[in-house]
């Protein structure tokens, strides 16, 4: 099937399921898409069990197998989604919270990775699923970062104080990049170096982390400045939209080829254009044109992404027996999230005040999403991949549906 036909199916299903949700379920748009897509997927799987000759599920999974979820998200959609999210972020608010955001994004992600890895290694072994410690850490690395796409979409339905919103959006934007870099390092260690050639020592690990994280930030800053200078002094809305589009696609492709962090590059470039670029390089008409364009891109790709999350049940259907281990992982990830939020806040609160109820909202509002599933799918074909993928998918579904639907009443209760 050609790429246009696949795109037509995905956009068509997004519109159809979105309409069903709007008319029947009336859930928040992205969460509703996941629920409707998941319900449709389970209905097809159930029908195939009753009437195996129909093979509807086989045909649907055949179409989904033509869509490489990992490459579609990590090498395509994510660049646009992160740039759009950073473009609308308030840089002055993020700057004032930079210590909190930095500590939670880096230290918090590391704490969560090791807590999840250690506890899952122990618990899975206790339940009879032999799992090497390093592969448990791989799961910890991919599930620990909050998903910026899921978190930012949450703000469209939940009203939170601006200071808390800055902390949550800033953390999710940056710990995504940190998490992907950490995941890359841990996987490289797990496969005994893989493409890096032999076992990795401390020097190789530091070099890889530095190249990915710092290199991505420098690349994003340079690209953002080039885009800003290109738009400075001209007033052509269509051309300036084209410049931002070229900036995103070109920078992300370059980051991938240079083995730098594309997500970090997109966040830095988006913050640069969304604040300095919007303020100094665009007229009011151009500003509205550019921001409206990227809002539309964000809405469309968000819809397709959450649709795909609901449909990915076909990918894990062959390992549904491992899905039960997600019931173990859900409380573990929530416990790790609690530590990764509460410990940094306890330290930072000596110098900086926090909104009342910030800790429980940050813990429960730290959603996991498609990035975790994409990272799980990107793992090399080992005997542990099926278990990691099934557990990841279960945690993501719980996070989006249960946490996503209950965070609004939590905010109303904790923040008055």
What does this structure look like?
The chain has 416 residues and is an all-alpha fold. It has one domain: Na+/H+ antiporter like fold. It has 18 helices and no strands. The termini are far apart.
Q: In short, what is this structure?
A:
The chain is mainly α and 416 residues long. It has helices at 3-25, 29-50, 56-65, 69-87, 91-96, 98-126, 133-143, 148-154, 162-190, 202-231, 237-257, 262-280, 284-311, 313-316, 326-348, 358-364, 370-377, 385-414.
Distance between the termini: 52 Å
Question: What are the segments in which pLDDT stays under 50 over at least 5 consecutive residues?
Answer: 193-198
Estimate the helix proportion, in percent: over 70%
Report the biggest beta sheet as strand number plus sense, adding barrel if it closes: none
Shape call: globular
Amount of beta strand: under 5%
How many beta-strand elements? 0
> For this structure, what is the CATH class?
Mainly Alpha
Question: What structural class should be given to the helix and strand makeup?
Answer: mainly alpha
Radius of gyration: 21 Å
Number of helices: 18
Indicate the CATH topology. Answer: Na+/H+ antiporter like fold
Compute the number of structural domains: 1
Average the pLDDT over all residues and give the rounded result. Answer: 88
């Amino acid at each position: 099937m050609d790429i246009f036909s696949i795109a037509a199916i995905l956009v068509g299903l997004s519109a159809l399921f979105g309409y069903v949700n709007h008319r029947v379920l009336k859930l928040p748009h992205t969460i509703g898409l996941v629920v409707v897509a998941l319900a449709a997927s389970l209905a097809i799987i159930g029908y195939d069990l009753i009437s195996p000759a129909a093979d509807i599920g086989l045909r649907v999974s055949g179409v989904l197998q033509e869509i490489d979820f990992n490459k579609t998200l990590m090498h395509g959609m994510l660049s646009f989604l992160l740039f759009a999210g950073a473009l609308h972020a308030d840089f002055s608010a993020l700057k004032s919270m930079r210590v909190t955001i930095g500590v939670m994004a880096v230290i918090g992600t590391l704490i969560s990775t090791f807590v999840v890895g250690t506890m899952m290694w122990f618990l899975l072994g206790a339940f009879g699923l032999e799992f090497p410690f390093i592969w448990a850490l791989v799961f910890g690395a991919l599930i620990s970062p909050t998903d910026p796409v899921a978190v930012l979409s949450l703000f469209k339905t939940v009203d939170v104080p601006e200071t808390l919103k800055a902390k949550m959006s800033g953390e999710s934007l940056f710990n995504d990049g940190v998490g992907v870099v950490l995941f890359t390092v841990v996987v490289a260690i797990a496969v005994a170096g893989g493409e890096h050639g032999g076992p990795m020592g401390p020097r190789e690990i530091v070099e890889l982390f530095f190249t990915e994280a710092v290199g991505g930030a420098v690349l994003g800053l340079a690209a953002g400045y080039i885009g800003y200078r290109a738009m400075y002094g001209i007033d052509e809305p269509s051309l300036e939209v084209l410049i931002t589009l070229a900036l995103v696609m070109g920078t992300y492709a370059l980051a991938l080829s240079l083995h730098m962090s594309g997500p970090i590059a997109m966040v830095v470039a988006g913050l640069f254009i969304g604040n300095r670029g919007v303020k100094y390089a665009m007229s009011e008409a151009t500003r509205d044109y550019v921001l409206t364009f990227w809002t539309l891109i964000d809405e469309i790709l968000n819809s397709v992404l959450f649709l795909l999350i609901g449909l990915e049940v076909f990918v894990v259907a062959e390992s549904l027996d491992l899905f039960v281990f997600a019931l173990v992982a859900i409380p573990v990830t929530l416990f790790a999230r609690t530590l990764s939020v509460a410990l940094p806040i306890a330290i930072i609160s000596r110098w900086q005040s926090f909104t009342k109820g910030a800790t429980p909202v940050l813990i429960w509002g730290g959603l996991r999403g498609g990035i975790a599933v994409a990272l799980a799918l990107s793992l090399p074909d080992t005997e542990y991949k099926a278990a990691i993928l099934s557990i990841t998918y279960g945690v993501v579904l719980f996070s989006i549906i249960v946490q996503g639907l209950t965070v609004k009443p939590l905010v109303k209760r904790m923040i008055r």
